[in-house]
Write a structure and sequence with these properties.
The chain is of the alpha/beta class and 218 residues long. It has two domains: 108 residues, GMP Synthetase, Chain A, domain 3, CATH 3.30.300.20; 96 residues, Ribosomal protein S3, C-terminal domain (Ribosomal protein S3 C-terminal domain, 2-Layer Sandwich), CATH 3.30.1140.32. The chain contains six helices and eight strands, in the order αβαββααβααββββ.
Length: 218
C-alpha cells in the first residue's frame, strides 16, 4: 500500500524553507500557529474580494510571516503587485488596518509589504487558483489541464504534474484524472519540487486540485 508524504515537508532544510519565522514558548505555540492561519486566510480572502479584475490577476504565491518582539512582518508574494495596488482605492493601508483590528494590534506593530514573483505561472498556488477559476466557469477539465501546462512551458528542464479529483464535468461518479509534462521526480529529496493543494467549489461539489512543479536546480 502506498505511503504518501507532503512534498514540501519532505524537503524542509534541503531546498524548501519555512514561511513562518518565530520562536515561542510551549504555551504560546498554538496561539501563534492559529494567528498565522488567520493572517493567511484574511489576506487571501481580502485580495479575492477587492481585486475586480480576477482573470488577469496573478494571485498570491505565498505569504511569509515574521514575528519579532514588537513587530509582525507580513510579506505577500504576488504575481502582479501593481494591479493589486491599483484596484484598491486605499491600497494596502486598508488591509493593514483591518488585519490589525482582527489581531488586536495597532498599526505600529504590523508591517505589510508586496513582493513581485518573477514567474507568476511558475508558482503552484497561482496556477491552482487559475485552474479553480476555469473549473468554476464550467470549462472542461482536460482542456483546462492542457492550457495550464502550456502556461508553464518546459524551461530549464522543468516538469509539471496536475491532478484533479472529484465529480469531473458533473459526472455521477467521482474519479481522479492527471496529466504530466516533463519530469517530476517526487521520490528524490534533492529535487526542487513546488507543490500546492487547492479546493474548487463547483455546482457539482468540491474538486481537489493538486499541482507539482519541478525546477532543475542546475
Amino acid at each position: 500500500m502506498g505511503r504518501k508524504i507532503h512534498p514540501l515537508g519532505f524537503r524542509l532544510g534541503v531546498n524548501q524553507k519555512h514561511y513562518s519565522y518565530w520562536f515561542a514558548q510551549k504555551k504560546d505555540y498554538p496561539k501563534f500557529l492559529e494567528g498565522d492561519r488567520k493572517i493567511r486566510n484574511f489576506v487571501e480572502n481580502y485580495i479575492q474580494k477587492h481585486v475586480k479584475n480576477v482573470s488577469n490577476y496573478g494571485g498570491v504565491g505565498h505569504i511569509e510571516i515574521q514575528r519579532k518582539t514588537d513587530l509582525i512582518q507580513i510579506d505577500i508574494h504576488t504575481g502582479f503587485p501593481d494591479l493589486l495596488i491599483e484596484e484598491q482605492s486605499l491600497g494596502i493601508s486598508q488591509m493593514k488596518s483591518d488585519l490589525g483590528n482582527i489581531l488586536g494590534l495597532g498599526n505600529r506593530n504590523l508591517r505589510v509589504t508586496l513582493t513581485s514573483v518573477t514567474q507568476p505561472y511558475g508558482e503552484p498556488k497561482i496556477l491552482a487558483e487559475h485552474v479553480a477559476l476555469q473549473l468554476r466557469s464550467r470549462i472542461p477539465f482536460r482542456r483546462t489541464m492542457k492550457k495550464t501546462i502550456e502556461l508553464v512551458g518546459r524551461t530549464n528542464g522543468q516538469g509539471i504534474k496536475i491532478q484533479i479529483a472529484g465529480r469531473l464535468n458533473g459526472s455521477e461518479m467521482a474519479r481522479v484524472e492527471w496529466a504530466r509534462e516533463g519530469r517530476v521526480p517526487l521520490q528524490t529529496i534533492k529535487a526542487n519540487i513546488s507543490y500546492c493543494y487547492h479546493p474548487a467549489q463547483t455546482i457539482h461539489g468540491v474538486l481537489g486540485i493538486k499541482i507539482w512543479i519541478f525546477r532543475d536546480s542546475h
